[in-house]
From TrEMBL:
It is found in: Endoplasmic reticulum membrane. It comes from the Bacteria. InterPro entries: PIG-V/Gpi18 (IPR007315). The keyword Endoplasmic reticulum applies. Pathway: Glycolipid biosynthesis; glycosylphosphatidylinositol-anchor biosynthesis. Its main location: endoplasmic reticulum. This is Uncharacterized protein. Keywords: Endoplasmic reticulum, Glycosyltransferase, GPI-anchor biosynthesis, Membrane, Transferase, Transmembrane, Transmembrane helix. The keyword Transferase applies. It is a multi-pass membrane protein. It comes from Cobetia marina (Deleya marina). The chain crosses the membrane at residues 44-64, 128-150, 170-192, 204-225, 245-264, 307-326, 333-356, 376-396.
C-alpha cells in the first residue's frame, strides 16, 4: 500500500512538473497565423504618444529645475561622436579624448546618416532634430513592438509594454542622440517579418541592423540557433530547400562589410571599429572572470560603484537570457546571449546600455511582469520610472558611469 502510494505521488509530481514545463513553453504560431495577428493587432497610439510626452516632460522639468540644457544633455557623450560623424564624416586618424588615441570609427554609420538627412545636411540644429528623430523612431518601434506582442505574447498587455519602455530605468537613451531607438525599430521589424516568413524584408532589416550597431551582426547567428533548436540536424537539409534563409545569412552581415570598406578606404584598417575600442579600455577577455571581479567590488570596495553596478546588471541580463531559454524562445535567447556576453568579454562598461538597447531583454522582463498580479506589475513599472528620474538627474550632471 505504501509503495503504491509512493508511486502515485511520484507520478503526480512528474505530471505537475511536465504541466509546468508545458506552461512555460512559448507558443510559436505558423507564418500565416503570425501574419494575421500582425495585421489585426491593435496599436494603442494614443497611449504611445501620451507615455512619451509625459515622461519627456518630466525629464525636461528636471533639466529646467537644475538650470541645465535638456537638448545639450541628450547630445553628450556618444551623441557628440554621432554629431561629429554627421558634420565631418569619419576620422582619418585618431585624435579624440585626453590621450588622443580615440576616433569615431567605433560608431556605425546608419544613425548619423539619418541625422544628416533630418538636419538637411547640417542646416538645422542637430541636437533638436536628433532628439526628435530618436523619439519618432521609438514611437514607431513601440508600434511594431505591440504587433510583435500580438504574434508571440497575445496575453501580454500592450499598455504595460508601452509604459514600461517609455519610463523604465535607462529609457532616456531612447531620447538621446544615440542609436538605441533605431536599433529597436529595425530589430522588431526583423523579428516580426521572420515570424511571418517575409524573408525578403528580413534581409533588408538585418542588413540595416549591422549598419547600426555591431550587435546587429548577431541576428543571423541567433537565427541559426533557432533553426538548429527547432529542426535539429534537419536544419541543414532544410537550408538547401530554403535558399532565402541562406540569403539572410549572406545579406545580414553585409551592412558591416560595407562599413568596413568605408573604414579601409578612410584609414587603411577595415577593423578600425574594433581596434579603436582599446581607447575605451576594452580588450577581449573572459566574460565570467569580468563578471565575478565586478561583483566582488560589492564586498571589497563597495564605494567603487561603477563596476559593481555594471556586473549586477549583467547578472540580471543572464537571468533574463535563462528565462527566454526556459520558454524556448530560441531566437530571442540567442540575440540576448550574444548581445550580453560579447561586450562582457571586453569589460563591464556600458552593460546597462547593451541590455536596454536590445528589445528582447525588455520582452523577457515583460514576460515576468505579465505573470504577476496587474496592480503589482504596474506598481513595479512606476517604481522603475521613479528610479529612472534619479538616473536622468545624474545624466544631466554628466555622470560617466551612465555612459
Amino acid at each position: 500500500m505504501n509503495d503504491s502510494t509512493a508511486v502515485k505521488a511520484e507520478r503526480m509530481g512528474k505530471g505537475r512538473l511536465a504541466a509546468l514545463g508545458a506552461a512555460l513553453i512559448a507558443e510559436t504560431p505558423s507564418p500565416s497565423d503570425a501574419l494575421v495577428r500582425a495585421r489585426t493587432a491593435s496599436i494603442p497610439w494614443a497611449h504611445i504618444l501620451l507615455a512619451l510626452v509625459i515622461t519627456r516632460l518630466a525629464w525636461l522639468a528636471i533639466a529646467a529645475h537644475g538650470d541645465q540644457s535638456y537638448l545639450h544633455a541628450m547630445a553628450q557623450f556618444d551623441g557628440s561622436w554621432f554629431k561629429g560623424i554627421m558634420t565631418r564624416g569619419y576620422d582619418v586618424e585618431a585624435r579624440g579624448m585626453s590621450d588622443g588615441d580615440a576616433a569615431n570609427w567605433a560608431f556605425f554609420p546608419l544613425y548619423p546618416a539619418l541625422l544628416w538627412l533630418v538636419t538637411l545636411g547640417g542646416q538645422l540644429d542637430p541636437e533638436l532634430m536628433g532628439v526628435l528623430l530618436s523619439n519618432v523612431l521609438l514611437a514607431a518601434a513601440l508600434g511594431l513592438g505591440c504587433r510583435y506582442l500580438a504574434i508571440t505574447r497575445p496575453d501580454a498587455s500592450p499598455l504595460l509594454f508601452v509604459w514600461l519602455v517609455a519610463s523604465m530605468p535607462y529609457s532616456f537613451y531612447f531620447s538621446a542622440l544615440y542609436s538605441e531607438s533605431l536599433f529597436w525599430l529595425l530589430c522588431l521589424a526583423s523579428l516580426i517579418d521572420w515570424r511571418c516568413q517575409r524573408t525578403g524584408r528580413v534581409m533588408l532589416w538585418t542588413l540595416l541592423l549591422s549598419m547600426t550597431r555591431a550587435t546587429g551582426v548577431f541576428w543571423v547567428i541567433a537565427m541559426g540557433i533557432e533553426l538548429l533548436a527547432r529542426l535539429r540536424l534537419a536544419a541543414f537539409a532544410e537550408l538547401w530547400r530554403r535558399p532565402d534563409w541562406l540569403l539572410i545569412g549572406v545579406m545580414g552581415p553585409l551592412g558591416l562589410f560595407l562599413f568596413m570598406a568605408v573604414l579601409y578606404h578612410q584609414t587603411g584598417d577595415a577593423l578600425a571599429f574594433s581596434h579603436v575600442q582599446i581607447s575605451w579600455g576594452r580588450e577581449m577577455g573572459n566574460p565570467i572572470v569580468n563578471l565575478v571581479q565586478g561583483l566582488g567590488y560589492w564586498f571589497t570596495a563597495p564605494e567603487t560603484l561603477r563596476p559593481a553596478w555594471q556586473a549586477s546588471m549583467a547578472l540580471i541580463g543572464i537571468a533574463l537570457i535563462g528565462w527566454l531559454g526556459l520558454q524556448r524562445r530560441w531566437l530571442e535567447m540567442g540575440l540576448a546571449a550574444f548581445t550580453l556576453f560579447i561586450p562582457l568579454a571586453t569589460g563591464l562598461d556600458a552593460i546597462p546600455r547593451y541590455l536596454i538597447g536590445m528589445p528582447v531583454f525588455v520582452l523577457a522582463l515583460l514576460d515576468l511582469l505579465t505573470r504577476l498580479p496587474s496592480r503589482l506589475a504596474w506598481g513595479l513599472v512606476a517604481l522603475g520610472a521613479l528610479f529612472n528620474l534619479w538616473l536622468v538627474e545624474n545624466w544631466y550632471d554628466a555622470a560617466f558611469w551612465l555612459v
